[in-house]
Amino acid sequence: MGMKAERMERRMTVGWALGPWREFGLGLGMMAVLAALLYRMGFFEAGRLLQGGLNLARFAREMFPPDLGILPTIGGALLETLEMALAGTLLGFLFSFPLGALGSRTLFPAAVVAAARLLMAAIRTVPSLLWAVLMVIVVGLGPLAGTLALAFYTVGYLAKLYAELFEGIDPEILEAMRGVGAKRRHLIRYVLWPESANAVLSQLLFMLEYNIRASTVLGLVGAGGIGFYMQIYLSTMAYARLTTVLLTVLLLVLAMDGLSAWIRRRYLLNP
Predict the structure, then answer these.
(1) Whether pLDDT at 2 is above 70
(2) Residue of 87, 75, 77, 90 whose CA lies nearest to 220
(3) Which of 38, 134, 136, 203 suits 183 as a labelling partner, its CA being 20 to 30 A distant?
(4) Among 83, 68, 61, which residue's Cα sits nearest to residue 226?
(5) Is the Cα torsion angle 143, 148, 153, 157 positive or negative in sign?
(6) Measured between alpha carbons, how far is 28 from 248 in angstroms, rounded to an integer?
(7) Whole-structure pTM over 0.90, yes or no?
(8) For residue 65, is the peptide bond before it cis, meaning its omega torsion is within 30 degrees of 0?
């Protein structure tokens, strides 16, 4: 408690030193930048916004009531979406953990770390939808392309998060283990994993939740899942059926959020 109180007091001292006018000026500058960007994008064009509101109201009228008759048709695609997200996340995790370890400066020399982080950055540069297009070219249409796309996307982000997480481990523990002759594989097995297991699994669950959302749109480019039906209903303006698809996806996302929260409470919050 004493250290926390000292940190809070130091922050308050710094805040008073900056002065309220400087903080006000910073906030005002940020608002000015935002207003300029919105102006360039046409946000303040009243006629455009009014027409957009009318279009939205017309679109909303055509979306309701939802057409529940298509539930048997989209059930298999919804299950395929879940399978893609689960398989892609786990496959990506298998590569993310070792790549994250290679990107940790506390474990590997600078050349290895630089190469690993360059690979992470290159993978993250490609959005998930573009990965789906590339995988469709490589393996053809279907859920395999979507699964591989999600796996690549997962590697790019989880490896980066894990590298930063591993670097945050107390270096004194690593030095103590090195002092008794531990090699890198021992450090990963007996230090990295025990010290970071909760955070690693928590981020893995978050990535699974994200991939479920992302996998719903991969079908737009032929990579399997419920997105295939979303594309059909959008192109044919069958908005009532599109509403049904969106509601089923919402229920799936809520179910996975609830399951993830239960897993965190049950397994990850215990000391």
Answers:
(1) no
(2) 77
(3) 203
(4) 83
(5) positive
(6) 43
(7) no
(8) yes
